[in-house]
Amino acid sequence: MSENVFYAAFFFPAAAGVLIFFMKYVSEILQARVRLAQDEAYRALAAQAIAAQTDAAKTLSTYGDTLTAIQTKLAAVEKVLKDVE
User: Fold this and answer.
1) Whole-structure pTM over 0.85, yes or no?
2) Biggest alpha carbon distance in the chain?
């Protein structure tokens, strides 16, 4: 009987140690997966931001060209109005 108690005294702490090591290992794997998913989400967000900034720059460039054309036409209209006076 005392031999079984002796084995149990070593088996259960050793099994608990292995279980704790296994749980820690699985926890680190899960944390790494979550970190990787977050990194991928940030990369996708950065790519969307770059695309939006590029689109905004193109739109602003178009607005600038349109504004220049409007200013040119307005100057022509002002010149005609001054000539009419």
Assistant:
1) no
2) 123
